[in-house]
């Protein structure tokens, strides 16, 4: 752990530097696989599934029997937990629905905005030891509320050709329309170009390793949208003497166990709190099954003491954390002042885990400073905002002259003509 | 003009194919200039301004005197037109403001969503013969309503070192905080990395030629967001015998004058209407100052007859036009059924020009089929959606067990611990 006292603003960006990755090597591999999937379709999917997942499959689509089998394998305890989480996620994202916004900007000029669902979306769920069924909930629930017609889920098969039953259960529960046992770059390429086994989609959501991240970036060059650029997960906690050191330590550790490159930061106006949290981390870390990972991340963590809350807030906005926990006497000050953060957790009984799983907020959030310019996933991520307008004869008479003058000033005579013709037509009839 | 009768769905994508561009050559140039601006700052800005704009400037920032001079140069007629347009754009985008969305998903678990402005944004406005001051309105007005702190505008200087006065007037009127006389790739690179003359921004908006488009794409690799990927402008009109052929022709021509690669499409269930529009185009096109451009675009235009409105709607959704004009007896059918379009114009007195300039809707819209997965620019484009949560002791008791079970099933013990510790703490006190 690195304790830093009262750092000057000039060095904030240095001490809060995120790990940078070189993607050039990966990019060549990703481009090659994309080219092959584009050209050869399922033949390329089979080849790379064999290479990366070590298995040959006859059918990539998960069958109804496989889903039923998975449902049977999940304990009723886990089912109930998933259902509770789903219910909260559903409530919070349903509340985000918006009505048509309609106004008459000038008499006879009616403009409105409506949101319509993106028709075809793809969800990528990584495989491996930690089956991220919670991410299935976070992406499929709002997609279903939005009204997306096709919700395709891709996830890599294990060595026996299966997908983790909790992932299948969650997908089944949340209205996924097709589950495909394909992972990695080949899955993203498949959803980009479409193959007989994998439908082409318009937007791809979900986490993944560096290969998947680069593949999603490349997909955008072929007309597919993505949820957001990705980076290692991060947590910043601001805490003072009203915080409980063991709670703060447990939250920092829950971030640290994600990966060795996780960013773990504590900012405080209290040196006493910093010391107490440091001690608690040492105790709690020994009990963790993933302590090797957590120790590496904690080694790079920063415990930053600052003089006052004003400085703390500036530093936090400068960093733009993905997760931001506030355990402070002045929580209102931080809530009102924070402009760059993905999701904010307030008070001693609001651990990040709550938002990761079951409170109802989304856990797909901007990392890597993207909280400065990107939203976390929300209902609107699955929709497009469209505008409509209907102008009456009176309306075009009211704004027609302005359009003619502006179009002429921009040198666009045909734009002007479209109005002139209509005004003349009305004039002749009056 | 290409008349096509009753095309089968299998060939829709072929006949509605958009012009594709190769960007590989451009990419090398763009990458080089980015590297140089990143390393040398204003020195590189000066070099490329000299090369591309043929001028050396001492100061890149537009001074207060230059703005005052520009205001003096604009006719009062044009000022009034711009003010009317601004007023309508302001009304429509203000109406898009949203309140905090707050719900208790479970007793003691309060979640809310709030939007906060992106703090620093950049607007790119191309130079050249057609000064796009209307685009200044479309971008700066919602940015100001959103509350963006820094609104930087970059536009190339002409041979005398000036920016068109209408652009300066519009920028001044709409709260732009800094106007910089730098254009092209070097402007985008400057806003990406920041130089002494050009502030670094978090998101870049605005149109541009192929070089600017590729530069904006590259900017996203350095953490900057962009409004949307760009392509040539396009208009699709669906019209039947209730339409006025001369109006339809004038709208198609207003699209055609944009550029030789503009996409101009008419879909109709009436052969009579198609023939009448064709004749009207021949007449009107001869009067246009930009007729050389318009003729090229019209050569590639498509006049498509289809059997019925159902087929027409499917074809239109398959294409996903940027601008969609409906002049049909069945306008409700099209309004309700359209899912892929940027902006929709309804009725005989609603020309695309209205939305381009003064009705109040935004004219920065998804082209190239991106209407399937991207919104046009709207108030939310200048904001980020953030979530907040506050959980009480009762709240964590209500959802804590579900979190523990899910975290354990995902193999994330520290996530579980963060809840267990809190539940234990409450238990010990009860």
Automatic annotation (TrEMBL), chains A, B:
NAD(+) binds at residues 124, 186, 209. It comes from the Bacteria. GO terms for molecular function: histidinol dehydrogenase activity; NAD binding; zinc ion binding. The active site is at 322 (proton acceptor), 323 (proton acceptor). Substrate binds at residues 233, 255, 258, 323, 356, 410, 415. PROSITE patterns: HISOL_DEHYDROGENASE. Zn(2+) binds at residues 255, 258, 356, 415. Binds 1 zinc ion per subunit. HAMAP family: HisD. Catalyzes the sequential NAD-dependent oxidations of L-histidinol to L-histidinaldehyde and then to L-histidine. NCBIfam families: hisD (TIGR00069). Belongs to the histidinol dehydrogenase family. This is Histidinol dehydrogenase. It comes from Flavobacterium circumlabens. The lineage of its organism: Bacteria, Pseudomonadati, Bacteroidota, Flavobacteriia, Flavobacteriales. The gene is hisD.
């Amino acid at each position: 752990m690195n304790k830093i006292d009262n750092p000057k603003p000039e060095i904030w960006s240095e001490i809060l530097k995120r790990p940078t990755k070189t993607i050039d090597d990966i990019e060549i591999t990703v481009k090659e696989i994309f080219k092959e999937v584009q050209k050869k379709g399922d033949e390329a999917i089979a080849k790379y599934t064999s290479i990366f997942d070590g298995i040959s499959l006859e059918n990539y689509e998960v069958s109804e029997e496989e889903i039923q089998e998975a449902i049977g394998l999940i304990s009723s305890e886990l089912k109930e937990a998933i259902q509770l989480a789903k219910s909260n996620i559903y409530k919070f994202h349903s509340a985000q629905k918006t009505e048509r916004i309609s106004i008459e900007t000038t008499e006879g000029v009616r403009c409105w905005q409506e949101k319509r669902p993106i028709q075809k979306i793809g969800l990528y769920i990584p495989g491996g030891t930690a089956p991220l069924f919670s991410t299935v909930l976070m992406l499929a629930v709002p997609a279903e509320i939005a009204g997306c017609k096709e919700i395709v889920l891709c996830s890599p098969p294990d060595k026996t050709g299966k997908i983790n039953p909790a992932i299948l259960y969650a997908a089944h529960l949340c209205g996924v329309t097709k589950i495909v046992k394909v992972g990695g770059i080949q899955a993203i390429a498949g959803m980009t170009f479409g193959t007989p086994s994998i439908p082409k989609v318009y937007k791809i959501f979900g986490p993944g390793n560096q290969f998947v991240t680069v593949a999603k970036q490349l997909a955008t060059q072929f007309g597919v949208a993505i949820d957001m650029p990705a980076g290692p997960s991060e947590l910043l906690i601001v805490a003072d003497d009203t915080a409980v050191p063991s709670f703060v330590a447990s939250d920092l550790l829950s971030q640290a166990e994600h990966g060795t490159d996780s960013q773990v930061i504590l900012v405080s106006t209290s040196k006493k709190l910093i010391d107490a949290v440091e001690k608690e981390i040492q105790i709690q870390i020994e009990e963790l099954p993933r302590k090797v990972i957590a120790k590496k991340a904690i080694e790079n963590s920063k415990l930053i003491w600052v003089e006052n809350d004003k400085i703390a807030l500036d530093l936090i906005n400068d960093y733009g954390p993905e997760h931001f926990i506030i355990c402070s006497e002045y929580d209102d000050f931080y809530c009102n002042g924070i402009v760059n953060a993905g999701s904010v957790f307030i008070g001693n009984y609001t651990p990040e885990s709550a938002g990761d799983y079951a409170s109802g907020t989304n856990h797909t959030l901007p990392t890597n400073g993207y909280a400065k310019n990107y939203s976390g996933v929300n209902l609107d991520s699955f929709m497009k905002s469209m505008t409509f307008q209907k102008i009456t004869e009176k309306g075009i008479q009211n704004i027609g002259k302005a359009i003619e003058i502006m179009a002429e000033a921009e040198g666009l005579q045909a734009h002007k003509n479209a109005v002139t013709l209509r005004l003349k037509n009305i004039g002749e009839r009056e």
